[in-house]
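Exam revision sheet. Question 4 asks you to relate a sequence to its structure. Input first:
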Amino acid sequence: MMVQEQRGSETMLYCPKCQVLVKEGDRCPACNSKKLRDPQEGDPVMLLTATEKKCRRIAGALDGQEIPHEERVCGVEGIASAYAGEGGMCNKNIFVPYDRLEEAVELMYHIGVTGSGKSAEEADEAAEMSPRKRFIVRAISVVLFILLIWAVVTMADAAAGWVKSLLYP
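Answer key, structure tokens:
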């Protein structure tokens, strides 16, 4: 979650193109732009990304606190989900004014959208998995899936043999 933090003695920087706050470095992590600046009071800042269904709840909470906000569909998936008849399935980015960001972050925590009782370090460890560990987990999953299919086929074959022995002694 983005919260106004200090970068040494200066505040986080703002990417006007992506409308995100940059915690570290001198480039935007989303678009790689070096045109970062100090955020200004009315700048729209991305609060979070959520599903359409969760956005309704978030919008209700933000409206209740009279925090201005804007929802934008992420990429082109919203168009695809609308044509497929899967309304409510695409993700949206929610933006709030920079001067109300801290209040909005706190509100998201209180309504249970963010935060799970874990510390920030525990949440980061759970969210991040090295490529090597991810590969090992996937490889083990594939092997277990193949063993499961083998067991089902073997049991089906045994059951078919048993039924056959009953019908044709």
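Marking note for examiners. The beta strands are 6-7, 10-11, 13-15, 20-22, 44-51, 70-73, 91-97.
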